[in-house]
């Protein structure tokens, strides 16, 4: 009887440990905003060839701009999600959305004027291109995970 219980428990234990890695592989890693931020800053600084002083002056302004843009984007999203169905109220909502979009463009223009005081314009263009490429790679990588493929792995070098 003891041998039977011992044998069954060993079989159950081996099956449980064998099944666990397969379950973990199917899970998509959680999004870590801080890691994403660090990876993006590293990539942008590298691509734009920012010096340490330039990066130190650039990223606080850049991150502040992006935060304000995200907040405004969320307001636009909420307006669209909660849009009224009657024409007059919907017209007011459309005007609010368009006003926010104009304010976002003006905000970006204001911040880039400030940024150009601390980083040369040619490096800002490199940052813009690098940001586009970074986001494109992240989307492609995410699609690979969703389709069951590993996608291209994006490695963040140790600092």
Query: What global shape is seen?
Result: flat
Which whole number gives the mean pLDDT? 82
Total number of strands: 0
Number of helices: 5
| Radius of gyration over C-alpha positions, nearest whole angstrom | 24 Å
Helix/strand/pairing class, anyone? mainly alpha
Q: How far apart lie the N and C ends?
A: 58 Å
Major sheet description: none
User: What fraction of the residues are assigned to beta strands by DSSP?
Assistant: under 5%
Helix content: over 70%
Secondary-structure element string:
HHHHH
Oligomer: single chain
Low-pLDDT residue intervals, each spanning 5 or more residues: none
Question: If you had to describe this structure to a student in words, what would you say it looks like?
Answer:
The chain is mostly helical and 159 residues long. It has a domain at 45-128. It has five helices and no strands. The longest helix is centred in the middle third of the chain and has 30 residues, at 52-81. The N and C termini lie far apart (58 Å).
